[in-house]
Design a protein that fits this description.
alpha+beta, three-stranded antiparallel β-sheet, 3 strands
Length: about 140
């Protein structure tokens, strides 16, 4: 991702903004690893900050299945936005789940529910605690 930051006449301000963008990027990616940051420009021009994020890590299959199931059962979920399409729900889920790069949680275990009503109830009761999705941990 690339951010353009206008220089305010002080390289310290530009460096502070670059650092703030880096921190914001790290907070958004959580489990992703930042590989490098580069800045270009001087005090009298704009500064370009590039943050490289490692997206090559393995995907969590439980999370992927959960996001697909959420998209299929979106209209059964209480307070769901009816204006979102299945593709939008899937994309939003993957974003909220940090690209499905994290550990499996009780929320992901709800994907085994075949009936959308049962899925929605499970999803509402899940607490995002770490889980292996064994029978003893399904909400």
């Amino acid at each position: 991702m690339t951010y353009r930051v206008s220089s305010f006449g002080s390289s310290r301000v530009v460096r502070f903004l670059a650092l703030a963008l880096l921190v914001a990027s790290c907070e958004k990616t959580h489990s992703s690893e930042v590989r490098g940051v580069s800045t270009t420009g001087d005090d009298k021009s704009s500064t370009e900050v590039k943050v490289s994020v490692d997206e090559d890590g393995p995907s969590n299959p439980s999370c992927e299945t959960f996001c697909k199931r959420l998209a299929q059962c979106w209209y059964a979920v209480p307070n769901a936005d009816p204006m979102l399409s299945a593709a939008q729900v899937m994309a939003r889920c993957r974003t909220e789940q940090h690209g499905c790069r994290g550990d499996t949680t009780t929320t992901h275990c709800c994907a085994v529910k075949v009936d959308c009503h049962d899925f929605a109830q499970c999803y509402g009761a899940a607490n995002d605690a770490p889980s292996t999705c064994g029978a003893e941990t399904a909400p």
